[in-house]
Protein 1
Amino acid sequence: MRLNNLTIKQASEKLAKGEITSVELTKACLARIKEVDEKVKACLTVCEKEALASAKEADERRKKGETGYLLGIPYLVKDNILTRGIRTTAASKILENYIAPYDAEIIKKLNRQGAVILGKTNMDEFAHGASTENSAFGPTRNPWDLDRVPGGSSGGSAAAVAADMCLFALGTDTGGSIRCPASFCGVVGLKPTYGRCSRHGLIAMTSSTDVPGPITKTAEDAAIVLSAISGKDEKDSTTADVEAGNYESKIKNSIKGLKVGIPKEYFVDGMNKKVKEIVETAIKKLEQLGAKIIPVSLPHTKYAVPVYYIITPSEISSNLARFDGIRYGLSENNVKNLMEVYTKSRGRGFGAEAKRRIMLGTYVLSAGYYDAYYLQAQKVRTKIAQEFDQVLSKVDVLATPTSPNTAFKIGEKSNDPMEMYLEDIFVSPASLAGLPAISAPCGFDGGLPVGLQIIGRRFGEETILRVGHNYEQAADWHNQKAVL
């Protein structure tokens, strides 16, 4: 097995025994990036010199007796997470040459653990999308089929993990942006509870749902990374003062007797029939492992996508107002007055999807429409959250498809924004409710991966990781590899 094919757990054990070094591991990942990224286009920035220096430092720390799962482990970072001294573009022309002046809190935590940054990954511009086609620097391609999308908005991170360019990657999830690409690329994607991990140092999309999280090769690896990046942060008032345990320590416990709710609203007419069959087979596997399968209902699920696409553009409109051509980022010089600085800088800097969401959000928040749209959407969002809490008081987790389809072809849905938005139908409800959810590979349809989504109670990451680990050990889909 090539070193870049290892999981975090496998590599950490070899590093601890002295069988390999972090420098060797990092070189293997960098070589893989050079080998396949011309086809996949997962990376926007590769930091070879800095990565090798960090790997050498990690090896020195081990020689001095330091230990840790992530010490010397190479990883990639979604390009809307600030990395000090490294270009951070959010895949937008308006930030094409922006160098972050400080690290995001989650990057600081990984630095302290001794993890090695390889570079930054492609994404939908400012995380606006479900396909990674909206990047200002071109689309990322799915390693399982280079003519298809990897999902989004964390498509570069998911594709990089699926192609073994790194041992794990960081993404962000506002309405499925970790889980959707994880499903499309056949890897594990974990959206933590809102408030579990600090958002300080993330380029804000939708502040009330945005959560950073790991994309990994196994559920166990996701648990290891989550343990490292979780916790209260004084610089982020939305983080919760809830103890974050060592998730990997309990992941192997049995799921016998666990109550798994199956919401009927997630198995609807119009979804891919083969995807439905594959997910139902995965649920039967959970039952064989001793879980109790219980039918449940979440009737407000049907409102999740319209609610999400009212609240999300509203917050985007506000958050992107800071990109004005004055303080940082792209600034047009050929202007006659201040208004032209704004309009020309934003007009040239933002892509079509960012503009679409800015305009929609500004309209929704305008006088006369705020009460009719935004306020109503927030009321329905509250109902969705209450409904989840009520159902999850009777069952331990919910099991659903991650996406109604497998990865679609590049360009297939780019001219129909509404059809693209509907890809979020099974992932946006948990985001609106602030709940943790994980997507794990559960089979293939025509050679394309299918994802099983497990949704848990608020701050119930330990349970969903345990379900994910038990399932993948029994089903073994996570060991299937894309051939490039």
Protein 2
Amino acid sequence: MVLGVLIAVYSSCIDNKFNNATVNLASGYQLYEKNCSNCHQTDGSGLAQLYPPLLNSDFIKNNTTAVDSIIKYGQKGPIMVNGVSYNMAMPSSKKLSDFEIKQIASYVLIKFNKLDSLYTN
């Protein structure tokens, strides 16, 4: 009983947007590690000229609204990332829910590209 009251009081003092963003980023990190890091690496640096970097990616910064779609449906054809051409097909992520895709996209945008302003509204 006392623990429940303490949790309720503590959580009422926390900005819910920050709390939810933290939970989503933690979940996004776990999902990214499981589904994306094998190719794009844990730090988002990519793999040689096979898989493009997600870290500080000009492609992502110029296509923020497409990140969810790319995760969900994959990517085919050449793309230019930070001045380097990549043409390795990225498979679709049919096993991920839309919510899981949003968590991964949020993680990539915020942690690798510092685009947290997209999520402050």
Protein 3
Amino acid sequence: MYDIAALYEAETLEHALALLEEHPEARIIAGGSDVLIQVREGRLAGSVLVSIQKLDTLRGIALEEDGAIRIGALTSFSQIAQDPLIQTHLAVLGEAVSLIGGPQIRNIGTIGGNTCNGVSSADSAATLMALDAIMEYQGSGGIRQVPIQAHYVAAGKTALAQAELLTAIRIPQESYRCCYGHYLKYAMRNAMDIATLGCSVNVRLTEDKGCLERVRIGFGVAGPVPMRALHAEAAVKGQRVSGETLDAAGKAALMDVQPRSSWRASRDLRLHLVEELTKRALGCSIRHAGGML
């Protein structure tokens, strides 16, 4: 049985925002793959829920006039992985969401839910960090564009105000133009498991494929929130493509993270994974971009 105090079904975006204003204690439910589990386990027992399942305007992927790729918050992981725009320009994001749960979860789970639960282990989060994603919030006061680094405030908490919804995630053209990426997830099992650590890298090489012109490195489960590895990025930007550059990235990434010990892994194991996955993901991204190692 599910202990739910009330369930309201929004008919439009405006209706959803009005319901959130009317019920400040309410929680959003979309696919339900996260919220319903927490209700069943008792962590959200007695919750008031606002369903946004009917809001089809929040689904789909489109190329905008400024070149940004806009992903509706209710777009499922399966839709993202199969979309031609994603496969052409953001293959790394398709890779990342294809590692979430099993087929049933990927069919109902949404990119908005995955990023709004605020957890560091969300498989899409590290890649969206590496893509400099912009989160589109909407409330009664209008639309806010929030860089993804500001979206994550603390463990389990985002910058969304109580009566705001995430309506879309925008990937700027600068983040995918001539860019190539790779996501690596370390978990105890190959499927249906939460990440022990995740690392996503996005690079652009110089025209001769010999140097790193642009580098973005994102992590999940390397701290209380998903994060960018700014020291590692700075250490290798402009450097020659080489094994030494990969090693430098791995070492520098240790300055960016704050992993903790948990029942899944010790802090020391996670630090080892940070260094190793950084090198591997960066190497794969360079090869995808046509570089030789």
Protein 4
Amino acid sequence: MNKTKMLLMAVAALLLTVAAGCTKDEPVIPEKPGEEQPEDEGKDEGKDEPDAPAAMWSNEDLAWVFDMEALPEIRVDVSLDEWNRLLKEYDRDSNTAEYIHCNVEYKGKGEQHYYQDAAIRLRGNTSRRRPEGNGGEMHTSNNTDWHHCHFMINLRKYQKDDDHELHNLRKLHLKWFKDDSDYCRELYCYDLMRRFGIWTACFSSYCRLWIHVEGDSQPAYYGVYSMLEPIDDKFVSRRKELFDGKDGNLWKCRWGATLNYNDINNAWMGFDDDSGANYVYEFKGDEEDFDAARRQLVEFSRNLTQLKGEEFRAWITSVCDVEFLLRTYAANVAVGMWDDYWNNCNNYYIYFNTTDLGTYKFFFLPYDYDNTLGTSSQCGVQSDSGRQSPLKWGDTQKNPLIGKLLEFDDLRQIYVDALREICSKDRDLLYYEASMSRIKKWHKLINSYVVNDTGEDCKMEDRPASWGNHHEYRLLDTNPDVNFFRVKAAAVDKL
């Protein structure tokens, strides 16, 4: 091929790339969250196609269930005996993971599904609550002191057949909007990550929830909930091509999970035995595989902690897609996730795609994003999750993974470039106008349904959690001094 023809082909390819990268819908921003728009406006905008890399992963079943433009209805019917058993289990152990029998009805997007003999249990760590009363008393019919709490619905717990699946999903994680009167923080974060091509982020959307206890004259309306894809073996299996393996070792990591070899041997570890124990490192596999999985995790932490310089770099790049990890963590920092691995050694999953002691690929899975977007606390090295430097997000001596990567100039540049891309005006990601447009559209979908029978969280307000240390942050105020998205962009501009 002659040089002229090669040059023309390169120019054509460049023009196509530029054109694709600059295509963006113009957002329509309602004056108020609940304001109606004329029927001929915003029809195409409603699809809200993510402006993300072409390699962005999707799944037809997940996309159907977790649709941010839909508001499915979920009704749970429970016998009086089973509901009282749930209350007793909570009183016995507030961390109980005990399921109870129930029936579940799901209505959404023109479909109606009914699951007889499904299961439901409580979820949450510090946010786990009793769904009724204050402790000790059993169900009070028709005069009930309902409380918001997190639930897990398991459609196949007792009936192992395909009829007990919702578009190939077996479980639904339902979360109330604890400390988030904007009713959007966690959903925004997962949505942003998927737009940014972070395929390890779970799918999520809104739903409405009712619970009917046998004998009550009508079901209790629990209000608008977030509906999340659980991170478990099925989560991994659905992404097996991207993980390059579905039979590896999955861990849930809670507070204290530093991945530091100096303390990992003394950390509380265990396999998920449905006991409700809050292990620091919880193995999501079978008991007989736990010892081998533990040796693999400890060996990973030894290399992570003890290897230095180019020896560390050669090892970490051989066991991890470092660029993808840094892009994932850039998204984590961009949304102000301070209760995370680097700053607070908390709230993440890890996956090794094989069970081999040293030959594997390591993946970091983002998790639990309700305390973000300006909900801030004095924690770790931080006191302000908006203005904190993204290069000094946590204590690298304590939690070494990200900080050790950023010691290399080229890897640090990947991280900084990812942050700038997320905050760019040219991308439909964290830029404040695009973010406000999405949030207002979601508010329009749900604002008529937030009043509920618990009497809790019945009003949407644009403010962070009351217990936080930065009450000034807002999501829907354009003031550059208080709008979280603009404050974060300013912090990134300083890098």
